[in-house]
Amino acid sequence: MKTSIKMLALVGLMSIGFVSCDEKTSDKNVATAAVVSSEKVSEVKSEMTKGYTIGDAATDFKLKDVDGNMVSMADYKDAKGYIVIFTCNTCPFAVASEERIVALDKKYKKLGYPVIAVNPNDPKVQPDDTYELMQAKAKSAAFTFPYLYDANDKIYATYGATKTPHVYLLNKENGKNIVKYIGAIDDNVRNANAVKDVFLANAIDELLAGKEVSVKETKAIGCSIKV
Amino acid sequence: MCSKQLWKYFYAMKYLVIIVLIVFASCKEKQTEDLLLKVEDGEKVAAVVSSEIVSNENLIKVVDYQGLAPLLAKRNDTTYVVNFWATWCAPCVKELPYFEKLNKEYVDKNVKVVLVSLDFPDKLEKQVIPYVKENLKSEVILLDDADANGWIPKIDENWSGAIPATVIYNKNKRTFYEGSFTYEELEKEVKSIL
Questions:
Q1: A206 occurs within a structural domain
Q2: Quick one: average pLDDT of A82-96?
Q3: Which residues from chain A sit within 8 angstroms of residue B160, using beta carbons?
Q4: Do the Cβ atoms of B24 and A44 come within 8 Å?
Q5: Mean pLDDT lowest among A126-140, B35-49, B89-103, B171-185
Q6: Would you call B107 exposed, middle or buried from its count of C-beta atoms within 10 A (0-12, 13-18, 19+)?
Q7: Could you tell me the residue range of the domain that residue A99 belongs to?
Q8: How is chain B split into domains, by residue range?
Q9: Which of A46, A86, A159 to mutate to test the interface with B (most CBs of B within 10 A)?
Q10: Class of domain B42-193 as given by CATH
Q11: Predicted pLDDT at A186
Q12: A115 part of a folded domain
């Protein structure tokens, strides 16, 4: 009798042990970033400082989409502009953005700003980005926009894209495609539910309202373009 | 209580003690992992760190930008080589051995390598920690801060956000590189600042 009471007590203690073990210490630090000293003296030796800046006229291109058709911006006679997104098949940041890119195309294509996605990676360097795997990606992610193969033409370099995803919002003005916004889709690549600021959508809305784009350039972490 | 009953009693207890010990052992292990996952908060970590955890050279601190910023602004005799990488970034993983080599060979010249992982925090346990344990001896920090547009320009205004990227600095000079290094290139840049 005595023994079984002790056993019961021990079993009880053990289960307490298990429960406390399962508790996750996942408290998150949501402190706001501090302003860093502006005295920072910085020397930059970046290979990729060329490319478009805001206000430049962007070049058109003729690149093969996943259905074998050649696609140019000039094909879209009624477009008011274009959302050109350099992206790829497997970069975690590109993958995390897929649904958002499809949603942007669905919303803004009919308002005159279609998405044109361009994969700049060379499959010889990044084997996940072959033309065949691009076809598979466009199908599995249900892309509603052309997904173009850029490894031969290197349009990304003319634009100055350095990573995937990398967005260029163009506006048609007097027959030219003027760069209006460069950067990220929004302020939280990792978690669509935690987005506070939809940079790209705001910029298109401002163009549609005939206003100047207020936030012209943003930064995001991305996968370096593999060439 | 006769001796036979007493023996039975001890026999039963022996197994219970073993079970309890196993539970405690597995629990301890779990807590260590939990601690690794903990967002750094100076005092709190100091309070819970045990000698066992301090001895773990692969401890990965998880910080937001505010937690990382002091590391990029030290004013002492050390030259810091701060590399931004991720396990999923092929060119980053390719150059990590060069940073490891540098950290080892330049330790007596006051050079310290810090590897800042930009992996998604939910990959820490399954992807980052196993990779670090297997491959890295330099200090590794995971930067968990979704507001990249806020902190990228603070690390360097010319950084597009592509990785790998590296800051090399000491109290006299600071340089920033977006792109990959060979060991020779990396060594040359560090030598130029020493």
A1: yes
A2: 96
A3: 48, 162-163, 166, 219, 222
A4: no
A5: B35-49
A6: exposed
A7: 57-224
A8: 42-193
A9: A46
A10: alpha beta
A11: 96
A12: yes
